[in-house]
Structure formats: structure tokens, C-alpha cells
Amino acid sequence: MSAVLPAVVCVCLDIRIWSGQKKLSPSDLQLSESDLPPQEIATLGSKRLCDPNSLSALHRIESRTRDCCSKTGVKFLNGFAVPKSKAPDLLNQLAELQKDFQQEKDGFLSLYEKTVRDWAAAHPGWEHILRTVVPQDVVESKIGFDFQTFTVSEPIFRNEDAEEGSDAHVAPAPCINGLFKATHELPATLFAEISQDARASWQRSFEGKAFVTRKALRPLKTLLTKLELMMFLAPQAIEPIAERIRQRLGSLPKKGPIAGNDYAIVAGIVYALSDAERLKTYAGLLQNGLPLDEAAFLRHQNPQPVIEAAPAETEPPPNEAEPEGEPELVTVSHTTGWFGW
């Protein structure tokens, strides 16, 4: 924990977007309270007061913002742990996205009343439900884009039993335990995020394909960059994976589609990364220095180490007797368990 916390900056996002909805009331449906079931059984739903598409630009900016943080950081303490070396670039990106968000917010608010009227007009016969308008100042308060950055250190408190002038300090166990747990889980969180992104890439670009264009390599390169940035979390576990991906990408042709054995290798890597158990197997093999064939993952099997062909047997010299009994069996084993941090 003491090595990780000084190396990261925490970035917390505070992005709020009005839902565009309001709770239905019995009068909206021309019902009395007696017509409704008890609230512990069921409640009325909500009504949309404006076209959802009018808020889509704000949602897109929010999505872009979270993608930026995810590419250079790992979820941590309700935010993202970002390497200090990358924090300035990320904060510049967030500042630009904040400006874009404010511009879209101002545009939405300038057309708010018209948007609500147009929505009601587009649904004739239901105007009585949509006539309730949320005041614009209330809507404005429900839309915002902020972010905070801070560093984290282990909590230290004065030991009341220490002598005056002493530097002896202690931190209560509950304070340490929660922070220690969150910090200790960072490598596992990183690999969970890698698997999630790789699974999306697999389903979008590789599944059921015989070849891919070079565009399909972009998500894998993004994952490689993230692994390299976060290598300090668990170098003994992350470095072999990053080195392997870097090596495989470097061996691909510089132009044209990715097909044949090249496709099998790249698709095998993405498929291996896309599931937690496969990633455990892949990482275990690499961590133990065993060569492997990534294409084996495409056959939905555990990868087997690639064993060099044994040299041809030669006749023993006349003065050497052959060993008696059954020949000794030689086996190759590999770990499939999760590796230590």
C-alpha cells in the first residue's frame, strides 16, 4: 500500500444529468387513491416530460469522460486511481469536456420550454399528463459537471499515550483496514476492467470472423497502454502479459487485413483476456515463463505449453546397458491459479 498510494492521483467525477422524467400521480391517470394498491405492493411509474434525445448529447459527453478516466486509470474510492505522470494530461481533457458539457447544457436550457411543449404536442390526447412542467431553475440545478482530484495517504493520528514531544503516532485499525483493502484490490480491479473491455472487443470485432482489419487492433493497443501505465500495481503479474502483447503486435504485418495465423494469434489474445478464468490461465503460463500458443484459446481449451520436438533417439554405446524397467514419464504442468500481487 505504501508503494502504490504515493504513485497515484485520485480523480472523482461528479456528473449530473436530469432524467427528463417526473413521477406519475393518480390524477394523471384520473384515478383516486382507493383505485391504487397499497404502496408496499406497487407504486406508479414515471412520465417523460421531454424528448430523451434532447439530453443525449450530455450523456455522450459523460460517456466520453468516463472512457478517458478508464483508459488511464483504475476504479478506486468512488473514482479513479491515475498514475501521477498521466494526471496532468487527463485533467486537461476533463477541463475540455467540462466546457463541452456546459455548452450543451446551455443549449438545452435555452430551448427547454419549447422542447417540453413540442413533446406534449407530439402525443395528442395525453397533454393532461404532460402539462406539469418542472421549473427551469430546478432542471438547471440537476445538470452539472464537476471533478475533484486528490492524493491519498495512510491516516496517522497522535498516540495519546505517547510522551510529550514524541513523534510516535498510530492509526486506528478500522481506518487502515478499509484503505488497505481498497488498495490491495487494485490489481484485481485492473484485470477485471481489462477482461470487460476485451470481452466487448471480442464480441464487436472478432467473434465469428475469419479476419479483421487493422482497426480491430485499436482496443487491444488501448488495453496494452493501460497495462503499461498501471504496471506498478503488480509488475511481476502485469509485465509478462504486456510484454507478450507488445511482442505479438510487433510481429504483425504493417499493412493489410489480419488473417490466417496472425488472426488466430491476435484473436486468441483478445479471447484469453476477455474472461477472468482464461486470463488467470494466460497470466499463469506467462508468469512461469512457459511458451504457449494463443490460438489454442480459440478452440475454447486451456492453452498447452509449446514443447520443442525431442531430438531423435540414438542407439546407446555398446558398453552402456539400457535401463531396466519402464521408461520414466516426463510431464509438463502449468499453473491455472491466480497469481500473487
Largest sheet: 4 strands, antiparallel
| Helix vs. strand class | alpha+beta
The total tally of domains equals: 2
Rg, Cα atoms, Å: 29 Å
Number of beta-strand segments: 8
Bulk shape: globular
Q: What does the secondary structure layout of this molecule look like, with pairings?
A:
Blueprint: E1 8-16, E2 21-23, E3 46-48, H1 56-72, E4 74-76, E5 79-83, H2 87-110, H3 112-121, H4 127-130, H5 136-141, E6 144-150, E7 157-158, E8 169-170, H6 173-184, H7 186-206, H8 218-229, H9 235-250, H10 260-273, H11 276-287
Antiparallel strand pairs: 1-5, 1-6, 2-3, 4-5, 7-8
Describe the overall structure.
The protein has 341 residues and is of the alpha+beta class. The protein is built from 11 helices and 8 strands. It folds into 2 domains: 146 residues, no CATH class; 114 residues, no CATH class. 43% of the residues lie in helices and 10% in strands. Strands 4-5-1-6 form a 4-stranded antiparallel beta sheet. It has a two-stranded antiparallel sheet with strand order 2-3. Strand 4 and strand 5 form a beta hairpin. The C terminus is likely disordered.
Quick rundown:
The chain has 341 residues and is of the alpha+beta class. Helix content is 43%, strand content 10%.
Please tag this protein with its features:
11 helices, single chain, alpha+beta, globular, two-stranded antiparallel sheet
